[in-house]
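To assess whether the prediction recovers the assembly geometry, we first specified each molecular entity separately, as shown.
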Amino acid sequence: MATTLAKADESVEFAARLEHVSKSFATPGGQQLVLDDISIDVAPGEFVTLLGASGCGKSTLLNLVAGLDRPSAGSITTDGRPALMFQEHALFPWLTAGKNIELALKLRGVPKPERRGKAEELLELVRLKGAHGKRVHELSGGMRQRVAMARALAQESNMLLMDEPFAALDAITRDVLHDELTRIWAETGLSVLFVTHNVREAVRLAQRVVLLSSRPGRIAREWRVDLPQPRRIEDAPVAELSLEITDVLRGEIRRHGQH
Amino acid sequence: MASTETTPVQDAGSVEAGLDALETTTTGRPPLRETLVDKVLPPVAAIAVVLVVWYILYPVVDDPSKLPSPGAVGSAFRDAWLRGELLGYIWTSVSRGLLGFAFALVIGTPLGLLVARVKFVRAAIGPILSGLQSLPSVAWVPPAVIWLGLNNSMMYAVILLGAVPSIANGLVSGVDQVPPLFLRAGRTMGATGAKGVWYVTLPASLPGYVAGLKQGWAFSWRSLMAAEIIAQFPDLGVGLGQLLENGRTASDMAMVFEAILLILFVGIAIDLLIFSPLERWVLRSRGLLVKS
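The predicted structure of the complete assembly is given in tokenized form:
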């Protein structure tokens, strides 16, 4: 796989580095600025959540980091190509759960005899042992997202980008998947950049929460979350910090109504 | 990560197993008996009704040159079978039809992909291709006879002109309906360019493509029959179309009925044996075939 991106080695001190990234799109009314001067460093193994209301350009930002789009200004450096997970599972319905994972392995160049075993291992990691032959439509929403996670992990990137991956799930399933993600993150040492509009989810998961303002998306504030994992979303310190962040977020949103 | 005094979450795995069990429903194939009652019985009953009506009408019309008795048509079948010609008629037409269809597949598939993926080609021939679909392919028989003469290549040309637009258009609409999310997901995994087409676009467009194949077969079978009725030549052998025409020239209504029934049955049989199972398999494996 030809890539001009930095290769994984000891000297890399960041998993992703965004420097003064701006992005604007052409609209009928002229150029519309979506992201304005975003600078973020994600350290190797760090878990960062990007938090913001509608129109903050969260998904645009992830697309840029994933290399699906180019910034209008500024630069993005990543340590290899990051894996990306979407709100919808985006699994291919013509393949079984296991074959979806094997396709990711194949595209990465893993030789055929090794693929099956690796796919089984990844399924075991997301606690879906025995689901290799299951069709996507036979799985529940939570199971699909776990297969999608296994497929993303199959890319063996150093970084996992997640675009509101649990937003469409019911609260119970989401809660369990938070536990799973935390466990897998701790086991694999991946860097995670996780986009959400759910403040508690952001605090529950992250080591660092970055709040984006809307239209255009700018970095409004950052919080370190020095709470030990595993956390629960009901924990008092999580609730306390969530409250503080929510107030700032509401302030940001309120500004848009004052015209 | 260091564990702390907060409530342990070690049981996440078992909670998850419980959720998985609660939210998964297993669907299997229906039992054979149910299939027989639901799928086989109704058409058999319909055929029985047609036969009964036929038996009642026959003495009313009372003119075997207009309406032959079911018995006469039956013996036309039996005689053709005893002469050893029945399978020959069928095979002459079916082999032509399937070979022509295979050619159409080889031409229509890359053509459809080209139209779907290359903007210029789509703008240039896309509308013509969909227009050709509404042109009855029978209309190609006279020019094909003039260009190629009364021979097999003329029949294949007519089949191609009937089936290629359907196959190509099916693939185009299949590709158009591929969710952009699949393409994005594919790209993040490294499926770009030809790999993206092979691993994502083509399999994702399979339902539309198969629908195109099905329609393409129906069109090519119809146009082949038209071509066979018109192209009478001893060297061509007797297919179902020629059988029909022979019946007409001999004013043998039983033979005409025999030919029409054979054309109908072969068309249905090919669809039932090849295209319907293919379509059902594609849809079922994607969870798109919902039992009502």
